[in-house]
Design goal:
alpha/beta; 12 helices
C-alpha cells in the first residue's frame, strides 16, 4: 500500500513509518501540519492516510478537519484517524461518509496486528472504529453539551447567568483570552451558524437551558456573590446577549418574538 502519514510526534511518526515499510508498504510522506498533509494527499493520492487529530498550530482538531478537506477533493480517500482523543464534532462528519474510514485511539491499540488489520480494512473501503469512539459519538448525539469539556461547560453556565467574558475570567481565575478561546470552542462544538458572536451567544445559552441534566453552575466566591447581589437591581436595564439572566424565560431572549401571555391578555 501507498501510505501518507500526518503526525507531529517525530518518534511515533518515524516508528510507524519504519514498521509499515518493513512490511512491504510505501510511505509516501510524513507531514507535521494540516496544510502540508492536504497538499501531499492531492499530489501523491495515497491508498490510505493515517492522520492524528491534533496538529500544529493550535493542536485542537486540525488533523481531522484536514482529512475532511482532502476528501472533498479526493472523494472516498481512505483515512484512518489515530489519536489520543475523540474529536466528536468532526468525527461524526467523517464517519457519516460511510466508506474508507477508521478511528482508533493510540492508547487502546494493544497489538500491531490489530492496527494493520484496521489499516487494510480502511484502505479497502471498509470501516474500523474503536468501541470507545462509538460510545462517545453516540453520547454526543444524545446531548449536545456532551461535546463540551468540563471547563467549557463552566463557561457556558456562566454565560447563561449573564456574565461577559471579563467577568467569567475573573471568577474562574483565568485570562480573558482563555475565556474567548473557550467561547469559540463552545460555538464550534454546538455547531452554531457563523453569525455575529452576540446572536450565537444567545443560541448557545438556549442550548444550555434546553439540554437534559445540565450541570449546576459553579459556585461564586463570597466576594463575587456579594458583588452579584449588589449588581442585581441593574440587571433588568441591561440588554444584549452578554447580559442574559438565568431568570429570563427563553421566549423573552433577544431575537425571539414569542411573548408569554399574562393576566391582562386573558382579561381582554
Amino acid at each position: 500500500m501507498r501510505i501518507l502519514i500526518a503526525e507531529d510526534n517525530a518518534l511515533l511518526a518515524q516508528g510507524l513509518s519504519a514498521l509499515l515499510e518493513a512490511l512491504g508498504n510505501e510511505v509516501l510522506a510524513i507531514t507535521e501540519d494540516a496544510d502540508s498533509f492536504v497538499t501531499a494527499a492531492l499530489t501523491d493520492r495515497p491508498d490510505v492516510a493515517v492522520v492524528d487529530v491534533r496538529l500544529p498550530p493550535s493542536f485542537t482538531d486540525e488533523g481531522i478537519r484536514a482529512a475532511l478537506r482532502a476528501r472533498e477533493h479526493l472523494p472516498g480517500l481512505p483515512v484512518l484517524v489515530l489519536s489520543q482523543y475523540v474529536e466528536d464534532t468532526y468525527a461524526r462528519e467523517l464517519v457519516a461518509d460511510g466508506t474508507g474510514v477508521g478511528y482508533l485511539l493510540k492508547d487502546r491499540v494493544a497489538r500491531v496486528d490489530d492496527f494493520l488489520d484496521a489499516l487494510h480494512r480502511v484502505a479497502a473501503g471498509g470501516t474500523a472504529l474503536d468501541p470507545e469512539v462509538v460510545r462517545q459519538l453516540l453520547a454526543a448525539g444524545a446531548d449536545p453539551l456532551a461535546r463540551l469539556t468540563e471547563r467549557e461547560r463552566e463557561v457556558l453556565a456562566m454565560m447563561a447567568q449573564g456574565y461577559g467574558n471579563t467577568e467569567i475570567a475573573d471568577r474562574l481565575v483565568v485570562t480573558e483570552r482563555a475565556v474567548h478561546k473557550h467561547v469559540g470552542n463552545i460555538f464550534m462544538k454546538l455547531e452554531l451558524p457563523p453569525e455575529d458572536s452576540g446572536h450565537r451567544r444567545v443560541l448557545a445559552v438556549l442550548t444550555y437551558l434546553g439540554a437534559p441534566q445540565r450541570p449546576a453552575s459553579p459556585p461564586l466566591p463570597a466576594e463575587g456573590a456579594r458583588h452579584a447581589a449588589r449588581a442585581e437591581p441593574d440587571a433588568a436595564s441591561r440588554t444584549g446577549p452578554a447580559r442574559l439572566s438565568t431568570r429570563t424565560a427563553p421566549w423573552s431572549l433577544p431575537g425571539l418574538s414569542r411573548r408569554r401571555p399574562g393576566p391582562r391578555d386573558r382579561d381582554r
